[in-house]
């Protein structure tokens, strides 16, 4: 088993955790107290958020965020470079978990998560969101096409890029996710600033495994429960 489960002081009082590679491989879900679950989705890099009140009876739906107001239900997501985001409005008793890769974040998965939480009684200003282990700017090289796509109609996104080698850029996915959460009205956002790519041995990374031609790669789990 790896080190202690990664938690945020911003979510103090809420059962939650970002599991490292060893904990995730061991499916150490008991590190986050809950009575049922955890509840997973079939993640597809979408902008869809699903409201749940009990574990799914059959196959999970295709979506990339979960929200609930049901005590004891654990929401869980898998990531391996994309941003895991755990959210809570403790006053309203509403929580959420989102898988935010660049496609989902650009498409609006974070805004959809906040909207689903609001539908359950949460207030955006009362929501606390924490961004867990994610590939960081120094590790995330993208090409000119990616750069142009994110700047098209949104020149303000230039702040999330720094020049890299010729024809390439370094993209700051965690900062982009934090910004989108802020634009959605989330009252408090924390980035744990943990780079999955650089955390060899501590975190799984799809991009690192690809660069090293590793045949398989794992995924981290992030969980939250009322």
From TrEMBL:
Family: Belongs to the purine nucleoside phosphorylase YfiH/LACC1 family.
Keyword Isomerase: no
One GO MF term attached to the UniProt entry: S-methyl-5-thioadenosine phosphorylase activity
Name of the protein in its database record: Purine nucleoside phosphorylase
Entries under SUPFAM superfamilies matching the protein: CNF1/YfiH-like putative cysteine hydrolases
The organism's place on the tree of life at top rank: Bacteria
S-adenosyl-L-methionine recorded as keyword: no
